[in-house]
Write a structure and sequence with these properties.
Length: 128
Amino acid sequence: MGKGFAFVARQQHIVTDTADFCVDLVFYNYYLKCFVLVDLKTGKLGHADIGQMDMYVRMYNDLKKQADDNPTIGIILCTEKDETIVKYSVLAENEYLFASKYRLYLPKEEELIQLIEQDRIKFELDHE
């Protein structure tokens, strides 16, 4: 994951007054001073997945975050990402929610360079 990450839980159970939920992976980053929630999706990213992560982040900020912690970050890892859903969902306006595509195999170096370049160009266009 990178520097400063500490593993907190796998399938962490969160209980509210009316329901209970499980977050796939929970980390705490000591440099960022925040929780990082990771939701693993084995299929295409859907609007319900984004709403679920948004809810988890809000719940964590309300129930787990301490006063001196920064806002919780939510990351959805999925095998396929629909750019239209990303564009018109809370992902477009929330700087603490992210969706990223993962692969079941390690790509060749040339393919990896091409994917990174495509993402860099898209990021630059989206933030002009």
